[in-house]
Backbone:
């Protein structure tokens, strides 16, 4: 538990430092430059729907994110009383973090790559295990187009949700700017989770 608190604190401190550099004073009015964090859509409505469904079921959720960099966790926790249903999230951007924090087996990434259905399933299981949550939401993929990658993997993102005995994985192919792509992945993940909860109710 101490490890998660340290990681969370580090994440907040780094974001605070980066945000400071993006603030410019103009006369007496502050203006904030566009950043990925500030460009997040308003997820209040869907977060409230998720919270209502989880409270009704007396269940909890956690997250494991790679390409969305904590945006799913931020969306779930943007409303009051989020802690009643949202246990926490791990941002495992590099493969080492996926293996160490989420316990994704090395051979899974070695055989299928970090952007695969097999890897996201292990991320989901790792999140539920780490937080002892009833459900998990995860993401892994390429946030922007990479001309060095094979054509079939350009803009490839996997989002997934799970319970203890069921998984629902969705493959996305995004073509926009980095911010738009990650926001699309978050929206798709939250929508998939709502559908999953309703089917599981």
Residues:
């Amino acid at each position: 538990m101490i490890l998660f608190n340290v990681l969370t604190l580090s994440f907040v401190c780094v974001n605070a430092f980066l945000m400071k550099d993006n603030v410019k004073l103009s006369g007496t009015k502050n203006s904030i430059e566009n950043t990925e964090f500030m460009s997040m859509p308003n997820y209040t409505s869907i977060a409230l729907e998720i919270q209502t469904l989880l409270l009704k079921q007396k269940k909890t959720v956690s997250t494991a994110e790679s390409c969305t960099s904590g945006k799913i966790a931020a969306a779930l926790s943007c409303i009051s009383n989020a802690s009643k249903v949202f246990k926490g999230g791990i941002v495992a951007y590099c493969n080492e973090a996926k293996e160490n924090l989420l316990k994704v087996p090395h051979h899974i990434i070695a055989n299928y790559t970090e952007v695969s259905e097999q890897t996201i399933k292990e991320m989901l299981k790792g999140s539920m295990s780490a937080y002892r949550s009833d459900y998990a939401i995860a993401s892994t993929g390429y946030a922007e187009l990479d001309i060095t990658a094979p054509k079939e993997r350009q803009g490839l993102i996997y989002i997934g949700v799970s319970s203890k005995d069921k998984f629902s994985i969705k493959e996305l192919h995004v073509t926009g700017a980095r911010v738009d792509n990650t926001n699309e992945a978050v929206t798709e993940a939250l929508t998939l989770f709502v559908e999953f909860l309703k089917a599981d109710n």
Summary: The first strand starts at residue 23 and ends at 26. The chain is about 45% helix and 20% strand.
